[in-house]
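Residues determine shape. We examine one folded chain.
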Amino acid sequence: MVFKINRAQKKMIVFLARHIADSGGRAFFVGGVVRDRLLGRKPKDIDVEVYGLSMEQLEQILAGQGKVIFVGRQFGVLRLMGLDVDWSVPRRDSRGRHPVVEIDPSMSPKEASRRRDLTMNAMLQDVLTDELIDPWGGQKDMDQRTLCTPDTKLFVEDPLRFYRVIQFAARFEMVPSEELNEVCAQMDISHVSVERVEEEFAKLFLEAARPGLGLRWLEKVGRLDELFPELTIMKGTPQEPDWHPEGDVWRHTLQVVDAAAALRTGQRERDLMLIWAALLHDIGKPATTTEFAGRIRTPEHDREGEILARRILERVVRKQSVIKGTVKLVAQHMKPLQFYQNKSSEKAFKRLAVKLAPEADLELLAALALADCRGMNPEGEIPLEIESEMVNWFLEMARASRVNKEPEKPVLTGRHLKGIIEPGPGMGEVLEAAYRIQLEEGIKDVEELKRRAFEETGRKNSE
């Protein structure tokens, strides 16, 4: 089997499994590790479920090899310090946000796995023999690329599972069954915390090759309008065919999201900002779309989008840097094209870098622009695999201006004004003026900047 843990850790798991067997128990890999092994993927988490032993017996066996950490003792979950594995005992959960947990080592694998969200996550594999236990047909469902649940009644008891289906459908490119669709179309999802929703969308945006598949499913089961009413009206909003042969704004947006996913770098916050910005970059179009002289126009949709993007993100994201950076990208997403058309100067690039900082930068804006260009496939849902002369020019200019990753640093700083002007709003005004002059005129001489800034602000230089 393929594990993220090293050989020594794997050896320890087997060693502990033998001790468990000697005590009359049986250790199984469960959940994602079994699923990922069958899919040929590297698992993120290792979970071992132990049958036939009490919680106290399992704890005693683990304690013989080191300190035991109670990850969730009330849920029957333990961890041995230094070993990245969750050890658990079968349990039953009552319904509700604060379920009453009943730990029952005598449960059968079939009974215990019934509470799992999906059949592909309800398989077990014996640690010592590799025997696969598949009570609910998870392997067959995976072969048929179908998401099914072992028990619809238990599924709806945890509304977070609805959001897990969104990201699983996209990450594994599997289609939820009609039964699962019907359940998800009707289940109450109003009590899931913002933090949990944020994390499930993060998994969708960071791990799926095509996040758009999850969004399409959300639309299919009729819940898109409930979560993101601002996105629903993109569907049917027309675009100028000469610029957007792929169709309406929603069709374009889904392609841009998938195109952006291919441009992720593995840096969590930057990737989240990129995908959120891809989803929201044209959110202002429905409100601004007009027809003039037989052509479809969307004047200032970027400004309208800035307002709407902030409103949406503040509902589902708690990380303020992600919100701020995404909003800035949405507000400025037309700049690469405008700069290219106008052949903008170096100082324009320097000003733009300041507007994006500190959360985003010109490199990230260029990635969004490239995804925008690729989201124009009129023949299907898959984005185009093209390069863009416009984006390449924009990046070359940003790098030549040495502001592609961060703004130009101010030459005049507070230390230069020490003893000349008191710290406070007055000093801030002088520094702001000096920085503006530096960017606009390319002046780098400290004394000249000082003189010009005091002159422009009307402040008195006490030197």
Q: What stands out?
A: The first helix runs from residue 7 to 22. The chain has a mean pLDDT of 93. Residues 7-137 form a domain with the Beta Polymerase; domain 2 fold (CATH 3.30.460.10). The chain is about 50% helix and 10% strand.
